[in-house]
Amino acid sequence: MKIEHIALYVNDLEGAKDFFCKYFGAVSNDGYHNPNTDYRSYFLTFEGGSRLEIMNKPNMTDSEKTLNRIGYIHLAFSVGSKDAVDALTCRLAADGYTVLSGPRTTGDGYYESCILGFEGNQIEITV
After folding, report:
1. What is the distance between the alpha carbons of residues 94 and 40, in angstroms, rounded to a whole number?
2. Sign of the torsion formed by the C-alpha atoms of 7, 12, 17 and 20
3. DSSP states of 36-54 as a string?
4. Residue closest to 46 by CA, chosen among 11, 5, 12
5. By Cβ atoms counted within 10 A, which residue in 28, 53, 70, 88 is the most buried?
6. Can you tell me the distance from the alpha carbon of 120 to that of 98, in angstroms, rounded to the nearest whole number?
7. Where are the domains of the chain?
8. Cβ(12)–Cβ(59) under 8 Å?
9. Confidence band, pLDDT 50/70/90 cuts, at residue 32
10. β-strand pairing of 122-126 with 74-78
11. CA Rg, the chain, in Å?
12. Could you tell me the fold of the domain covering 6-56?
C-alpha cells in the first residue's frame, strides 16, 4: 500500500502551482474545472511519482496556520544532498520566503531546513 496523493485547498491556485513547479520541479496536468461549482484543481507530479493535488473553490474559510497545531504541519521534499538543501533554502530566502530553521542536522539525524512557503504552509527540505 502507498499514499496515492495528498490534497491541499489553496487560495491562489495558479500561485501554488507555480511555487511547486518553480522550486520543487513539479509537473502539472492541464487542470480541472467544474463550471457548475467553480471547483478547480491541478495534479502536480514530482520526481519519483509522488503527487500533490491542489484545489480551490469559492467561499472557503482560511483559518490561521499556527506553527504548533493539530493536523497537517508540513510537506517534506528530499532534494538529494546537503548542497541541494543549502542551495534551495538560500534561493527561497532570496525570493522572500521565511526560513524557520536550518539548514542543520537535527537530533534524529536529518539534514534539513524548514521554510514558510506559499500561503504560510511549512515546507521541509531534506537530503
Report:
1. 31
2. negative
3. TTTEEEEEEE-TTS-EEEE
4. 5
5. 88
6. 9
7. 6-56, 74-126
8. no
9. very high
10. parallel
11. 15
12. 2,3-Dihydroxybiphenyl 1,2-Dioxygenase; domain 1 (3.10.180)
